[in-house]
Amino acid sequence: MTTSSARSIFMGPRLRRLRRELGLTQADMAADLEISAPYVALLERNQRPVTADMLLRLARTYKIDLTDLAGDGGADHTARMQSILKDPMFSDIDIPALEISDLAVSYPGMTEAFLRLYTAYREEQLALAEQRAPAVKGVVPAWGRGKPDANDPVADVRRFLAARRNNFANLDDAAERLVQVPSGPAGFIERLRLRHNLQVRYLPPSVMLGSVRRLDLHHKQLLLEDSLDTASLNFELAKQLAYLEMEDEIDAALEAGKFASKSAELLARRALAAYAAAAIIMPYSAFAKAVDTRRYDLEALARQFGTSFEQTAHRVTTLQRPGLEKVPFFLIRVDPAGNISKLLDGAGFPFAKHGGACPLWSVYGIFKTPRQIVTQWLEMPDGQRFFSIARTVTAGGGSFGATRVERAIAIGCAAEHAGQLIYTGSGQGLRADEPTPIGVACRVCHRPKCAARSAPPIGREILPDDFRTSSVPFGFSAD
């Protein structure tokens, strides 16, 4: 076998795309390459391989980089396909890895179409899940009927993120290219000055009038509140760089969403810019390596990358790049009143879609021990087990009299992944065989002996109180 034939590859769609980008007909390309037009047609239909000699001829003739022409061999599409085909809906189909690779390499257009279709399917599934509440013995609560509020942009964005497992590889790739320059506040400020002719100025809150960052293009300056802590300052600088230098990638990710309102689209754009900023500060490759080394020690990772606990916890939930996946996490952020202000689910945790959550989960009691990490094993009514890490975080402040907002964050994973976390070997908190029994929400939780219950479950009859008082707030029938 000759060297040329040994290195032959099928790249018909890429060759066709190159020809069209150059504005050539098959006859034009055939003349340029000194081959016949029918042979070009065979190459484009993958009925003939492109030899190493032909690759060199294409590169020389059209002055293009050989690696750009050859591409990555469909590695990214292959990894994404392999990840998607793990979905249980495909479990009865035996698809060899070689077939997946062949499809990704030989038919990238069809592969991309399948990937887009699956993502759209996931979005519709998540939307459908929010339309329905858990039924109990045929009883569907009133708040579970009908479609979700079309004017709920937050829910719209959460579905957008969840359908993509909160991972945007194009933003990670762009961030990896951008961080070849020195990172950190000094490096970002220098890049803003040299590349965008922007001067960074720090102003007191009274002058910023409610803003912590403001781009003043008229005076060529970026204004920042002077009371920001280092992690917040670094994040705002990185976010401004993302808006300036990653606009195309953000727009491309945004175009794939189907938003019900302009508000939802704007919120999604904000979320993508924040994602890009985190990717600049915590590049995927370096951060993924660090989480393995540190065994997901969030405080140690925060010190290593100069980030806050919340920024680090959020970034950990995004490490689901196909082929380079890490532990899938969920994240929730709540205030002392129980209001949820951030929700990311990459671990299949059954978050309540309506009503309150379970007060037995440590995230709701962590305000008693501020800044202290509390671990907890959780067991759902159906037997699912999760491992949770909770801690309070502070937003605002920075000067005397400035408003501070205390919130709690919980980040967790399914029990089967918990052994990879440093927290499960600390000896603190309950053991895996002593999980806290929690529910999604009182109205859909049927645990009969819960002293923390605030409402009876739907579909159960309350027991009379005439002759006995129950030890729980609502005694109800077992059937």
TrEMBL record:
Keywords: DNA-binding, Transcription, Transcription regulation. Residues 15-69 form the HTH cro/C1-type domain. The keyword GTP-binding does not apply. One of its GO terms (molecular function) is DNA binding. One of its GO terms (cellular component) is cytosol. PROSITE patterns: HTH_CROC1 (PS50943). InterPro entries: Cro/C1-type_HTH, HTH_RamB, IrrE_HExxH, Lambda_DNA-bd_dom_sf, ScfR_C, TransReg_Diox_bact_type. Gene3D superfamilies: lambda repressor-like DNA-binding domains. It comes from the Bacteria. The keyword Protein biosynthesis does not apply. Pfam families: HTH_3 (PF01381), Peptidase_M78 (PF06114), ScfRs (PF09856). Belongs to the short-chain fatty acyl-CoA assimilation regulator (ScfR) family. This is HTH cro/C1-type domain-containing protein. It comes from Methylovirgula ligni. The lineage of its organism: Bacteria, Pseudomonadati, Pseudomonadota, Alphaproteobacteria, Hyphomicrobiales.
